[in-house]
Amino acid sequence: MPPALERPLMDAAFLANPYPTYRALREAGPIHWREEFFGGAWLVTRHTDVELVLKDPRFSAKRTGSWVKDREDAPGEFKGFQALFARALLFLDAPDHPRIRKVLNAGFRPEILQGLAPHIERVAGELLDRVAHQETFDFIEAVARPLPVRVMALLLGIEQPDDDFMAWSEHLASFIGEPQPTRAQARSAQTSLLAMGLYFESLLALRRKTPGDDLVSRLAQAQARGEIEGGAELLAQCAMLLFAGHETTRHLLGSSVHALLSHPAQWQRLVREPTLLPGAVRELLRFESPVQYTGRRVATDMVLHGVQLRRGELVLAMIGAASRDPARYPDPDVLDITRCHGPSLAFGSGPHVCIGAALTLLEARIVLGQLLDRWPGLSLAEAAPRWGDTPAYRGLVALPLRRRPAHDDHWASQPQLDAIGTEARRATALATQVHS
């Protein structure tokens, strides 16, 4: 067995840089059984196999039982959690999945995202203004963490988002992203998810009386038409939209800035050629996928690459590994913002492709465009990045950046800076150019 596979897959070295291990897995064979994941799971790491697992109906999205198991001394402790958790869109199969997704799709139409773009630009500008006087600042805390919550709040019709939303999302991410969640993590996740449910229960009641154009109002109206069930099904969609919209975008923003500043030639090329920004965001998404893996349950006995898979067994589609597969991407460990080798699997594939993919890409384009416009001389303030300790979600917990002194910051020509600002605004028209 290669040395990279002899140690546990979730040690500090793996969390800091999982790609050598992914390479060893791909080269060692197409499918592997590992006990570290939920007490035992099959791992597929090659692009073709990951795409198969994500698309093939023989692999079921119903998998929440992997996370929550009652103890004998506390039967039913997580009953309330499971009632909401298991009804979220990402854990459903047909016919429930397409029925609910059709309702949610209405809230992510191109014209809605185009209408959101000026608000995203305003929020991003406000957040960057707050650190404009600082020579160094933490990009995660200043921008990447608060911006996605504020944007999702706009979409959901929440007027005053607060820190509770971020804390709730982070508790869920810690729980969902952990292959062997602790009892404490499960309890924190349950507390946060139930708090989300109570919050949206009140908001839905308000929107039934005074509906608007927001997504919560659309969900309330869909329930009235019989297109979505009330109770757990309705509340689960609201809660998971808030959670998913925060985690994925936060990590993409942080890792994108880090990757570009770690490759100064790529950053400088974007300054010179801002029209490359949409393609650059897709390459950054491939290079550091915010979601490193997702699971499926085997729905019917089958054989994959000569291995017998039994009904009910867990299969993990290792998206982070597929995104670095040389059979799909030449020189996959090289960041190339001009790469033109088709979409990655970072937002998934098949029926469960991320419903908010266009919104996440739009936020990334706008934020990167504003950074390039304001501070083309931006640099990393620390050499070693601080990655999170959750293997399913790859993201930075902190990203200290350094601005050049004001008189040095605008080393690019003014026409180049004007073009960068124009490109950020053009993101509104490009919001729907997603690989789905």
In words, what does this structure look like?
By secondary structure, the chain is of the alpha+beta class. It has a single domain, classed as Orthogonal Bundle (Cytochrome p450). It is built from 19 helices and 12 strands. The strands form 4 sheets. Strands 1-2-8-5-3 form a 5-stranded mixed β-sheet, covered by helices on one side. Strands 4-12-9 form a 3-stranded antiparallel β-sheet. Strand 6 and strand 7 form a beta hairpin. The longest helix is centred in the middle third of the chain and has 31 residues. It is globular and about 55 Å long. The relative contact order is 0.16. The C terminus is likely disordered.
Q: How would you name the CATH homologous superfamily?
A: Cytochrome P450
Total E-strand runs: 12
Mean pLDDT: 88
Helix content: 40-55%
The value of Rg in angstroms is 21 Å
Query: What is the spatial order of strands in the main beta sheet?
Result: 1-2-8-5-3
Would you summarize the structure shown here?
The protein has 436 residues and is of the alpha+beta class. Helix content is 51%, strand content 9%. A hairpin with a 2-residue loop joins strand 6 and strand 7 (307-309).
Which helices and strands, and how do they pair?
Blueprint: H1 3-6, H2 12-16, H3 19-28, E1 31-34, E2 41-44, H4 47-55, E3 59-60, H5 79-85, H6 96-105, H7 110-130, E4 136-138, H8 139-144, H9 146-156, H10 163-176, H11 183-209, H12 215-224, H13 232-262, H14 264-272, H15 277-287, E5 294-298, E6 302-304, E7 307-309, E8 314-317, H16 319-322, H17 357-374, E9 379-380, E10 386-387, E11 396-398, E12 400-402, H18 406-409, H19 414-426
Parallel strand pairs: 2-8
Antiparallel strand pairs: 1-2, 3-5, 4-12, 5-8, 6-7, 9-12, 10-11
Helix pairs in contact: 5-11, 7-9, 7-17, 9-13, 10-11, 10-13, 11-12, 11-13, 13-15, 13-17, 15-17, 17-19
